[in-house]
Design a protein that fits this description.
The protein is mostly helical and 176 residues long. The chain has one domain. 82% of the residues lie in helices and 0% in strands. It has 9 helices and no strands. The chain has helices spanning 2-25, 30-33, 36-69, 79-96, 99-108, 114-119, 121-135, 141-166, 169-175. Helix 1 (2-25) runs antiparallel to helix 3 (36-69). The protein is flat, with a radius of gyration of 19 Å. The model has no long low-confidence stretch (mean pLDDT 83).
Length: 176
């Protein structure tokens, strides 16, 4: 049932987001409506990319660690534990890959700037590794780094997104 939930989540996410965008589009101005399609494509694309990264990179490394660490014992992984690990990694990384979208909205609302993100880079990397250590399903450093590496890369992309939003001509006119 849980595997079907994940498959349904990834399959239905484009349609659900499209319906959400159609619902919200009636309240948007014409210049704001041009952002609906890029938002939809980037949100779905990043979520699927996060799930794919988790499936291809993080999940096999986690299983290898868990099974390899228990070689002294008879490894007995139940299907419930297997699917819980799968769900945690796939959905977790899918949501983590949405960081540039969150930064885009924070930058549009002027809650965050690229300059602030760049100045706090070292604290952000520390926070990323702390979060990666908390959400990693295993206790080894390799899996923590597998979670943290895309988060650091997405943070760098988010700095670029914030810079693009804050340097847009209509954004500068609104600030004057």
């Amino acid at each position: 049932m849980e595997v079907g939930f994940v498959a349904g989540l990834f399959t239905a996410s484009p349609f659900v987001l499209y319906q959400l965008c159609l619902f919200i589009a009636h309240g948007l101005y014409r210049k704001e409506k041009r952002y609906v399609l890029p938002f939809l494509l980037s949100t779905v694309g990043l979520f699927i990319a996060g799930g794919f990264f988790g499936y291809k990179m993080v999940y096999p490394a986690s299983l290898n660690f868990l099974i390899g660490n228990g070689l002294r014992f008879q490894p007995m992984i139940t299907i419930g534990e297997y699917t819980k690990l799968f769900l945690t990694i796939i959905i977790g990384l899918g949501l983590i890959f949405e960081m540039p979208i969150l930064v885009f909205f924070l930058a549009v609302m002027r809650g965050i700037t690229a300059r602030w993100m760049w100045r706090n880079l070292r604290y952000s990397i520390l926070a990323i590794f702390v979060v990666a250590a908390m959400v990693t399903p295993t206790t080894d450093i390799l899996n923590m780094c597998l979670f943290a590496a895309p988060m650091v890369a997405l943070y760098a992309i988010s700095i670029g997104v914030a810079w693009l939003v804050n340097s847009a001509p209509e954004h500068r006119r609104g600030a004057a």
